[in-house]
Specification:
Blueprint: E1 2-6, E2 17-19, H1 28-38, E3 43-45, E4 62-64, E5 71-75, E6 80-84, H2 89-96, E7 101-102, H3 114-119, H4 127-130, E8 137-143, E9 150-152, H5 158-164, E10 173-180, E11 182-183, E12 189-196, H6 199-209, E13 215-220, E14 232-239, E15 253-254, H7 266-279, E16 285-289, H8 291-295, E17 301-302, E18 313-321, H9 322-339, E19 346-351, E20 366-374, H10 377-393, E21 397-398, H11 408-414, H12 418-424, H13 432-438
Parallel strand pairs: 3-4, 15-17
Antiparallel strand pairs: 1-2, 5-6, 6-10, 7-11, 8-9, 8-10, 12-14, 12-16, 13-14, 13-19, 18-20, 18-21, 19-20
Helix pairs in contact: 9-10
The structure holds flavin-adenine dinucleotide.
Flavin-adenine dinucleotide (FAD) binds near residues 43, 44 and 109.
């Protein structure tokens, strides 16, 4: 076993994961068996783009999947790819977009792997049209410690398929994934951007524009108050239809080390928010954006998570059902603004009604709010307790992929199908998240 620097994206909890390189599919089962004999349980580790502890093994010993990054097959007539689970979404796009095929669902980072995208059943800026990633998985291969290798599909080994989509890596190690891609007329996005004055304007805007736009998302000024509560900048768009499939290279910068003290504080966030909001002039701005800038703006700064310093940060992401969204989000935003806590990374997104095949998938029809908070034990604990209570009362839920704090009771109430997942869990797999929320 070797020491390694594998961590979750929020760097909180501070729990480096140990691992040994894994390069071949036919060694996964032996490694799974070996880990369960030597350390008890383990967990597949994708690319560590989950923020909290759902990608951390309860034993802190993981099976690193990034070495399994080969394409197995592709049908470019019908837009179907089969690839090992450690292939990243960016690697899929590099092959598929020039051929006119887009990922039907992509999160805000291209560095997530196929295995990670399945295990968290990730969603993107087009949930209202395409649902979650799992809606587009045609087939996957699963390796378990207690069964022979098996393939799962919507109509084959259905219970395990549904449990694996959004199953937090607990139902087995995903060996490969077969995915249906989406045809597009261009890799570029024709974007409309406009600023909105408050939460009510966002709700009206997104409700209206969802009908005609594939993508929609908003940045929100989490410190605005009063009549400006929830103000921000709304961006929506569709793939352009001019047949340009280029993938322009982007200048990538990097945060070279973990900052000793985080520059993210109430003063800098307030200043940034003012400037960012005002930079967007009144009226609709039309633009054309390349895919990397539109889908993955944060990926252009490698290791941006290091700006939060040694203590790291937590993201609080919830989704509130449509009927309660306005009232609950108003109270949440007021609570956050009054706490003078939060960061400039604050996102509002509308989720649609398309059901996921996943047993415990996060999205539901309603509105999702996601905010990053520098890790400050006492302040976050008090603030999150208030926010969680609002979410629970409104019938919403928190996103396990981003979580490092929710209580077991909160999780079990919000995701009643957790017991079915526990029944189908591979006994050799256990995460810190699952142990924290279901086993104590
Ligand atoms: C900048 C940024 C933006 C993001 N935006 C979004 C967004 O818009 N929407 C969204 O939904 N998420 C978003 N995320 C979260 C991210 O997409 C998910 O956490 C994703 O699951 C990370 O994938 P990963 O490959 O890094 O997996 P990891 O984080 O390493 O692991 C995630 C889970 O997948 C499991 N897993 C990984 N590989 C396998 C495998 N081969 N077999 C079985 N289980 C496996 C792990 O056990 C773990 O439970 C964002 C993250 C970042 C950093």
């Amino acid at each position: 076993m070797c020491a390694s620097t594998l961590r979750s994206w929020g760097r909180y909890p501070n729990a480096p994961q140990s691992s040994e390189p894994l390069a071949w599919r036919d060694s996964i089962r032996a490694r799974l068996a070996d880990a369960s004999t030597r350390v008890g349980t383990t967990l597949a580790f994708g690319n560590g783009r989950s923020y909290g502890d759902s990608c951390l093994a309860a034993t802190d010993h993981v099976l690193p999947m990034r070495g399994l990054a080969r394409f197995i097959g592709a049908d470019w007539t019908n837009g179907v790819v089969r690839a090992e689970a450690g292939v990243t979404l960016g690697e899929v796009l590099a092959l598929s977009l020039p051929r006119g095929w887009m990922l039907p669902v992509t999160p805000g980072t291209q560095f997530a792997t196929l295995g990670g995208a399945v295990a968290n059943d990730v969603h993107g800026k087009n949930h209202h049209v395409r649902g979650t990633f799992g809606c587009h998985v045609l087939r996957l291969s699963l390796l378990r410690s207690d069964r022979a290798p098996l393939e799962c599909a919507p109509d084959e080994e259905t219970a395990l398929f549904r449990a694996t989509i959004g199953g937090l890596g607990l139902t087995g190690v995903i060996e490969w994934v077969e995915l249906q891609l989406m045809p597009v007329q261009s890799s570029h996005i024709a974007v409309s951007r406009l600023r909105y004055a408050n939460l009510d304007e966002f709700l009206a805007l997104s409700r209206g524009r969802d009908a005609t736009n594939e993508y929609g998302v908003a940045w929100v000024d989490c410190l605005a108050r009063g009549a400006a509560l929830g103000r921000g900048v709304y961006t929506c768009g569709n793939h352009a239809n001019d047949g340009d499939f280029s993938l322009p290279a982007r200048r990538v910068r990097s945060v070279p080390f973990v900052m000793p003290v985080s520059p993210v504080n109430a003063f800098t966030v307030r200043l940034f928010n003012q400037l960012y909001y005002r930079r967007q002039r009144p009226g609709i701005e039309l633009a054309r954006m390349d895919p990397a800038s539109f889908f993955y703006p944060l990926d252009s700064i490698r290791n941006w998570n290091r700006i939060y310093g040694r203590r790291g940060f937590q993201q609080h992401q919830c989704v509130i059902p449509e009927a309660n969204a306005r009232d609950a989000l108003r109270v949440m935003l007021r609570t956050i603004s009054a706490s003078a806590n939060g960061s400039f990374l604050a996102v509002l997104k509308r989720c649609g009604a398309l059901a996921s095949p996943g047993l415990i998938s996060f999205p539901m029809r309603g509105v999702s709010l996601a905010l990053d908070f520098p890790q400050e034990e006492r302040r976050n604990t008090a603030l999150f307790a208030r926010l969680d209570a609002i979410v629970a009362e409104a019938g919403g839920r928190l996103y396990p992929a981003k979580d490092a704090h929710m209580s077991g009771e909160h999780f079990r109430t919000a995701y009643p199908a957790w017991q079915e997942l526990e029944r189908l869990r591979d006994p050799a797999l256990m995460s810190r998240f699952w142990k924290r929320t279901t086993q104590t």
